[in-house]
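Final report, Chapter 2: Outcomes

The project's central promise was a pipeline that accepts a single protein chain and returns its three-dimensional structure in a standardized token representation, suitable for archiving and comparison. That pipeline is now operational. To close this chapter, we reproduce one record exactly as it appears in the project archive, with the input sequence first and the structure output second.
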Amino acid sequence: MRHRILLVEDDPALAQGIYKGLREEGFEVVLVQEGERASQIVQREEFDLIVLDLMLPGRSGEELLEEWQARRSVPVIVLTARTELHERLRCFALGAADYLAKPFWMEELLARVSARLRIVREAPARLLRWRGVCVDLDARTLRRGEEELVVTRNEFNVLAYLLERSGRAVSRSQIAEGALTPGEELNPRTVDGYIARLRVRLGEEAGSAIETVWGIGYRFRREELSDGEGSDRDGA
């Protein structure tokens, strides 16, 4: 399977050089040169890794890191001419997986890309199960028995947000800010609508694990979950 990489770099010569180098190594590469465009494409498409310049027109790399940190598990390798320690530490705090200072050798970037993809490939899948339903948080798939359940991007984001915080009551505003697509109208009815549709898609038994916490928001019952390859409660 060809890994899919998003390259976000506004310097035309450097962008073309990196694009060519990644393609020659067999990667599928999507190149964008503006921060806002990068934000939009990540909302619609899936990538295995992101190579991100910090100095971008429109929206900075730091803004994108902060946005993606709340919504994605895709590793981000930062490219920048800034080499100060506090700049590096800030990028790692915002969720960057790696940092490469400009100028750099293409061979080093390729080695770092391969290393990060190997870590992702060798990491155990994040599988969560309950009452016949299985969610793969990394592959973003949802199954009930042998049936694959089709959900929208935001529906999956809302479910993943609740699962990753199982046992905790979270407010509608927390769900909206942490799971929904930036720019969407965020209000209690928006979140309630996603929850209602998820309960229907999951079915009455599995959907009942998403509890309404009156006066606060919602909670996924922690005791319902099992993980890994273990059998799920009341499952097959």
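Archive annotation: The chain is about 40% helix and 20% strand.
This record, like all others produced under the grant, will remain available to the consortium after the project formally closes.
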